[in-house]
Design brief:
Layout: E1 23-26, H1 42-47, H2 49-55, E2 59-62, E3 66-67, E4 79-83, H3 90-102, E5 106-111, H4 121-126, E6 140-141, E7 162-165, E8 170-173, H5 188-204, E9 208-211, H6 232-242, E10 250-254, H7 260-267, E11 276-278, H8 281-284, E12 287-288, E13 292-296, H9 301-314, E14 322-323, H10 333-337, H11 344-356, E15 361-365, H12 386-397, H13 402-412, H14 449-454, H15 459-472, H16 474-478, E16 480-484, E17 491-498, E18 501-508, E19 514-517, E20 524-525, E21 527-531, E22 538-539, E23 542-545, E24 550-555
Helix pairs in contact: 11-15, 12-13
This protein binds 1-O-alpha-D-glucopyranosyl-D-fructose (TEU) and calcium ion.
């Protein structure tokens, strides 16, 4: 976390350390296995901190490492204040915090408080009897008159969101798997317990929280409302007051339902809620209205640019954007938005450039920085993700062929992001000396971190430069965004301006060379900050671009 330096041209900006930061997401199960059991772990992360320091990131977002039956790989927590044995111990975690801090890196934890595991002691108690003190920690409803679920709310993993508990004769709500019962946020005792737990971690010295499906905590089930419930923002303001409000931490909400105006409620500077949220519009714009991500639409650059531009403008003066292509739920960025076959290195760099030079805090998902790609599994047995496996069952019942389902899963399933991190050309990409819990992508032989580190022209070093540039140039952090050539099908062109500086970003998303007519106002000379072919220092009104060529030049 870097020190903030006042800059005369932008003195009125309310600066936060996380404005200048680059965040790196670790999915612990798939990152680095230190003891050969095939499962990544906390000591494995510690061994790789030097790598992350070289990359130049400031914060690690650690997907859940807490005690869990692992029905959803740790997003089902049975003890918020302990570490899952396969990931390590609390002592390992404290060592991770300390070792990361030595390298200037903060640790952001994943706060999963929309639901717990069904093995959490609260739920174990809650289902004992209707008058148990913990019963109201969860959301219970009577069956319908024929024993059916109270309403037709659906689980995000398929099927009804209600599970019948025969002992109590009641249904409980689970928006995710039946082993992830939803907490009842209307109960002040629930909120108090969560705040206590958050403070316990904050006191240990963490850098912040990523908040899992936080837009759901205000749900009003009887109205069929899950996201953006009436008290959502009251709860977040209360949380802010009771926990991290007085500390300089990074908080980012996962909000699939957010729109530009609610983003200002979450992240507006005087709202007392969160630092920023993740919005998913660039992801969901390619989902089918009926079949969702299992049948996806083709890449459409003008539509993508329109979404980014809309968000850049919406949060230009208040609120803050988070910038990401991928995470542990999403396909690999290079496979989704780039050209993994024809121009893997050039297109991976271009994706990085256009994302990291917009206004907001960029997030790198593990392996993205070395150009990792989607899987090409052939059989359903190779998948491990609960969402994919549930959906497979449902789609089979609905008559979809296994081949068609697997095609969709290889394109958009969550396991694409969960294959082992590819460290070297050693067996299983050097992730483990044992057998990994999920198959490695066979392309580890050429795509791996060791190769990236060794080659100054690699995707890795490109990401490293972007993280470094963010530290050096205020215009990258605070400059005003302006999109150009919005309808152009193959290029992404924008400027960032601050004080007397203009940063021009030009990127081709075409696998063919192209000739580009630029508006006269963009003709400029300047310093080349980053590029993936030869540096460009002069831009006339006609430009020749190589396949997936991109560059940024700074005029001062
Ligand atoms: O994800 C929320 C969520 O809605 C995802 O299930 C999403 O719809 C899907 O993956 C789209 O591809 C969060 C976590 O990031 C995810 O890993 C968890 O499974 C989920 O919450 C439940 O905690
Ligand atoms: Ca291990």
């Amino acid at each position: 976390m870097s020190e903030l330096q006042p800059v005369s041209s932008a003195q009125n900006i309310d600066r936060k350390w996380w404005h200048r930061s680059t965040v790196y997401q670790i999915y612990p199960r798939s990152f680095a296995d230190s003891n050969g059991d095939g499962i990544g772990d906390v000591p494995g992360i510690i061994e790789r901190l030097d790598y992350l320091q070289t990359l130049g990131i400031d914060v690690i977002w650690l997907s859940p490492i807490f005690a869990s039956p692992m029905d959803d790989n740790g997003y089902d927590i049975s003890d918020y204040q302990d570490i899952a044995p396969e990931f390590g111990t609390l002592a390992d975690f404290d060592r991770l915090l300390a070792e990361a801090r030595k390298r200037g890196i903060g640790i952001m934890l994943d706060l999963v408080v929309n639901h717990t595991s069904d093995a959490h002691p609260w739920f174990v108690e809650a289902r004992k009897s209707r008058d148990n003190p913990f019963h109201d920690f969860y959301v219970w409803r009577d069956p319908g008159s024929n024993g059916e679920p109270p309403n037709d709310l659906q689980s995000s993993f398929g099927g009804s969101a209600w599970e019948f508990d025969p002992h109590l004769g009641l249904y409980y709500l689970h928006i995710f798997s039946r082993r992830q019962p939803d907490l009842n946020w209307e109960n002040p005792a629930v909120r108090a317990e969560i705040y206590k737990m958050m403070n316990w971690w904050l006191d240990r010295g963490i850098a912040g929280f990523r908040m899992d499906v936080i837009d759901l905590i205000g749900k009003q089930v009887d109205l069929g409302i899950t996201s953006d419930g009436a008290h959502l923002h009251d709860y977040l303001q209360e949380m802010h007051r009771e926990t991290f409000g007085a500390r300089e931490v990074l908080t980012v909400g996962e909000t699939w339902s957010v729109n530009p105006s609610s983003a200002l409620l979450y992240s507006g500077r005087d709202r007392g809620e969160l630092s920023m949220v993740f919005q998913f519009e660039h992801v969901t714009q390619r989902w089918d209205p009926v079949y969702g991500k299992w049948r996806s639409k083709p890449f459409d650059l003008p539509a993508l640019k329109a979404v980014f531009s809309k968000w850049q403008h919406a949060l230009a003066d208040d609120g803050w954007n988070s910038l990401f292509w991928g995470n542990h739920d999403l396909p690999r960025a290079l496979s989704r938005y780039g050209d993994e076959k024809g121009y893997p290195v050039q297109s991976a760099k271009t994706l990085a450039t256009v994302l990291h030079l917009m206004k907001g805090t960029p997030y790198i998902y593990q392996g993205e920085e070395i150009g990792m790609t989607n899987v090409s599994f052939q059989s359903i047995d190779q998948y491990k993700d609960i969402e994919t496996l549930n959906m497979y069952r449902l789609h089979q019942q609905a008559g979809l062929s296994p081949e068609d389902f697997i095609r969709g899963a290889n394109e958009n399933g969550r396991d694409n992001a969960r294959t082992p991190m590819q460290w070297s050309a050693d067996p299983y990409g050097g992730f483990t000396t044992g057998t990994p819990w999920i198959e490695a992508n066979p392309n580890f032989a050429s795509i791996n971190a060791a190769a990236g580190l060794a080659d100054q022209s690699s995707v890795f070093h490109h990401y490293r430069k972007l993280a470094a540039l963010r530290k050096q140039h205020d215009v990258i952090v605070y400059g005003r965004f302006q999109l150009f050539l919005d309808q152009h099908p193959d290029v992404f062109v924008y400027t960032r301006t601050l004080g007397g500086q203009t940063l021009l970003v030009v990127a081709s998303f075409s696998a063919r060379p192209l000739s580009l007519e630029l508006p006269d106002e963009l003709a400029t000379t300047g310093r080349s900050l980053i590029f993936n072919y030869e540096p460009v220092e002069r831009v006339g009104s006609t430009l020749q671009l190589q396949p997936y060529e991109s560059f940024a030049i700074l005029r001062e």
